[in-house]
Amino acid sequence: MPVFEYKALDKSGKTTNGIVDADSAVGARQKLRGTGLFPVEVRVTASKTKEQEGPAQTSLSTLFQRIKPAELSVMTRQLSILLGAGVTLVASLDTLILQITNPLFKKILAQVKESVNEGNSLAFTLSKHPKIFSQIYVNMVRAGEASGSLDLVLERLAEFGERQEIIRGRFKAAMAYPTVMLFIGTAILFFLVTFIVPQIAGIFKDLKQTLPVPTLILIAISGFLKSFWWLILMLIAGIIVLLRQLVKTPKGRYVWDKIILTTPMFGDINVKMAMARFGRTLGSLVQNGVPLLSALEIVRNIVNNTLIAKDIDEAMEKIGEGKSLAAPLSQSRWFPPIAIQMIAVGEQSGELERLLNKIADIYEGETESKVMALTAMLEPLMILFMAISVAFIVFSILLPIFEINQMVH
């Protein structure tokens, strides 16, 4: 059934906008009149065929539209509240469509409502939009529908999304100041070397005086940057593109994942982030009735690291043979002993999901502490680098002046 976007007048004459599903534009107008609205404009939105909407139109309509994770979390929590209050799923989706302001999100929810209204499950419908609703989201909704506790599952999903956003926001906030300092410092150094140094170097050349080695080095660097700055930018861009292409290959991805797990300081942070993601995701899935093997299959994609995913694959094989989860994971280099011990205790006590969430709490806290410590260390290091660079420039400029002054005296 097509979905139409409308502009209409209510009984008081105020303009209202929204989305309505109907067989045709005429049917949409009739449906609106039945609700007391006088349609002014009705046009098809969500169910246009590929032939009707050309590729250029599609790209232009979605180029500047995206759905933020925070918007998805808010929608999920509101849907959970409505379902918990006894409102039907279709009516709940109708309510959400009316209050969501993001046009793209509004259209997608209209498509979801249309599909559910036709008899499809919510999980099946959400799986048709993988860019918006992740694999874990769809599987948890499927488990909620199967167990009859969809409202509780959606509430946990909202909490999961909000927690991930908090962690991501703290990381961005911690890295904001060092990043700004890096760009400003680089810009200042580039300005000094390419604009100020050449003018001073011109004075030295006019004096026809043999220059000290530091001054010659500075002039050479200045000349190279002024003449070939575009080449440096192209080289950096080329390296980035090459690395991105290499990471897309299985071997390149393996090497990259190993580097990010073994690099001093950063490797420890990445391992802790992976453990937090593993614990939170697996705990949420098991808590909502997803079988352990199915949950691990989802988690292996969530950890976003081929080395850890390989260890999870081996654990899945051992579990299929009748072994526990803790035993095969204890052979992994990346799973810390405390995490293995807590998983073992959880399996023995029947509280695996609670202890998995506890693992996530521990490593989320440690990750945040490590990031804060790293940024605190980066700031003085960048200041020191800037001080040394400026001192070298000043020394290289003043050194020939001192030599000329000694010759005069």
UniProtKB/TrEMBL annotation:
<comment type="similarity">
    <text>Belongs to the GSP F family.</text>
</comment>
<feature type="domain" description="Type II secretion system protein GspF">
    <location>
        <begin position="76"/>
        <end position="198"/>
    </location>
</feature>
<protein>
    <submittedName>
        <fullName>General secretion pathway protein F</fullName>
    </submittedName>
</protein>
<dbReference type="GO" id="GO:0005886">
    <property type="term" value="C:plasma membrane"/>
</dbReference>
<feature type="transmembrane region" description="Helical">
    <location>
        <begin position="180"/>
        <end position="204"/>
    </location>
</feature>
<keyword id="KW-0472">Membrane</keyword>
<dbReference type="InterPro" id="IPR011850">
    <property type="entry name" value="T2SS_GspF"/>
</dbReference>
<feature type="transmembrane region" description="Helical">
    <location>
        <begin position="381"/>
        <end position="402"/>
    </location>
</feature>
<dbReference type="InterPro" id="IPR003004">
    <property type="entry name" value="GspF/PilC"/>
</dbReference>
<feature type="domain" description="Type II secretion system protein GspF">
    <location>
        <begin position="280"/>
        <end position="400"/>
    </location>
</feature>
<dbReference type="InterPro" id="IPR018076">
    <property type="entry name" value="T2SS_GspF_dom"/>
</dbReference>
<keyword id="KW-0997">Cell inner membrane</keyword>
<dbReference type="InterPro" id="IPR042094">
    <property type="entry name" value="T2SS_GspF_sf"/>
</dbReference>
<dbReference type="GO" id="GO:0015627">
    <property type="term" value="C:type II protein secretion system complex"/>
</dbReference>
<dbReference type="Pfam" id="PF00482">
    <property type="entry name" value="T2SSF"/>
</dbReference>
<keyword id="KW-0812">Transmembrane</keyword>
<keyword id="KW-1133">Transmembrane helix</keyword>
<dbReference type="GO" id="GO:0015628">
    <property type="term" value="P:protein secretion by the type II secretion system"/>
</dbReference>
<keyword id="KW-1003">Cell membrane</keyword>
<feature type="transmembrane region" description="Helical">
    <location>
        <begin position="216"/>
        <end position="243"/>
    </location>
</feature>
